[in-house]
Specification:
The protein is an alpha+beta fold. The protein has 5 helices and 7 strands; from the N terminus they run βαααβββαβαββ. It has one domain: Aminopeptidase.
């Protein structure tokens, strides 16, 4: 199995991976941390899709996609923290003034899970951020200590997953998902 990770600049592939099943939905498309909350909540249906289409045309695009034989199978949202909701998030601290990138959403399509694609996505997201000059990448996974995480909340990843990718815990947070505390994990790229 050969997985290739590329920038998420093809809207149709992003829609395949994180587009809502209900076309009138005001959720997903991975916008909750990428754009201001008020804007995200106001966008529905085609307006939401068009906002994402615009992000895919930006440089950098909103993340990376894992492809298996040119089929999109995985998504990772990664972007400079300063341009995300994490820039002002009161529950997730800033460790320092470094202009880090945030990696906050991982998704692998059903039928392709448990094949190592998430690990490849993280590597690809880090390489993507490095290519844009990121001095470090942060993630905000749950510290579930091996307990099962509800699939709808698993998008943030786990502490163990990020540790296996070379990230280290940089701080505790006040954020909780699925009753598990989130931790700030960081990978220094300098």
């Amino acid at each position: 199995m050969s997985i290739v990770v590329r920038p998420a600049d093809v809207f149709e592939d992003v829609a395949t991976l994180v587009g809502p099943k209900n076309p009138t939905s005001q959720s997903c498309f991975c916008l909750s941390y990428r754009i201001p909350s008020k804007e995200s909540l106001s966008l529905r249906g085609e307006a939401r899709a068009e906002r994402v289409r615009g992000l895919c045309a930006e440089d950098p695009p909103p993340g990376v996609i894992a492809y298996l034989d040119d089929e999109p199978v995985g998504w990772a949202a990664v972007h400079p923290r300063r341009d995300t909701g994490f820039a002002t998030n009161r529950l997730i601290p800033h460790v320092d003034d470094l202009d880090v990138w945030s990696l906050w959403c991982l998704r692998v399509r059903p039928g392709f899970r448990k094949q190592g694609i998430t690990h490849t996505l993280i590597e690809g997201a880090v390489s993507f951020a490095r290519a844009y000059g990121a001095p470090a990448v942060e993630a905000y996974p749950v510290d579930n200590q091996g307990a099962k995480v509800d699939l709808t909340m698993a998008y943030v990843g786990t502490r163990a997953l990020f540790e296996s990718a070379g990230f280290t815990k940089a701080a505790d947070t006040e954020s909780v998902i699925n009753k598990f505390p989130r931790v700030l994990m960081r990978l220094d790229l300098r």
